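Sequence in, structure out. Go.
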Amino acid sequence: MGNLHDHDILQSDSFSTYIVPIIRSTYDITDVERITNPPIYSHTSRKCLIHSSSGTFFVKELPKYRGKDAWIFTSQFQKQLSVFTNIILAPRCTEDGYLVLSIGDNNYHVTPFVKADYFDGSDEEIRSSGALTAEVHNISENIALPSAFNFDMPDTVKLLSKLIYTESQEEQNWIESLVNDTIKLWQDAESFKIQRHIIHGDISPFNFLFVNKEAVLLNDFDNACVSIFLHDLAEGLLTFGYMMYAGIVSNFAAKLPQAPNKQRVGAFIEGYTSKRPILSEDLKPLSIYVELVWNELLILGVVRGDFSISHARKRIDISKKINIYLETIL
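Output:
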């Protein structure tokens, strides 16, 4: 989800001539040497690196699908986590102590930039990512819940579905059916009354950094919200065990595989359970969340133009295949 525009913020003259000087002065970044694009391209939000004598900083223009209050919440959560662990980077505060900088209609967020490796597809990195996800959940259990920012999957899917245009009535009917299925699944998931915590909300290979095949950092808390940990776990199983990505671009591949990779699903589960148990009573709601998150990812992929509606329809049963794997793994 996001702005869905070109990733290259440096193409904007106003950014270089107007925004960068404000960020430099507000965050007290002196002696700027150069400004570059980050190593991975994203079409959901615009980013850049500011290289200075005092270090390199990652600047993100926060997507417009959430308001400033939500960005303050996600930044505060990230900062709280960073107090307990070095696997989360603390966002940089402005000179006035704010975590989010508003300039015009846009909001910005700045963190230190750490040079590390990106996901190489190995089982070692998948296993380590599962373990790191569980570590974040273990810490989050001790962080007080805010009064707002509850996650609502049906609302998210409804919002995304409205961004899809098709002249085919059959395809439109399929989108509406997917939204209705999501609402029903959500009602089923809510019936379990599982304790809620703050979750990351976007567990995928592109949000982890690695050193010697070990996950050392988890980034991008834009989708942090109040939900249940099984949401993150389900997304990790889908993104590490099935989704293919388009090289150094954070979009999904144009053609999705016919089936998930059971070995990769197992590696993520093995890593996660090495740090945090999955209880028998979690299995049914986890299977529901796998279907819920898959519905969201399918619609998101269509909205971003990663693949067609017809291709998404052919892959609707992927979540069921992952759940079959889970029955044999857990």
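Check: Confidence is low (pLDDT under 50) at residues 1-7. The first helix runs from residue 13 to 26.
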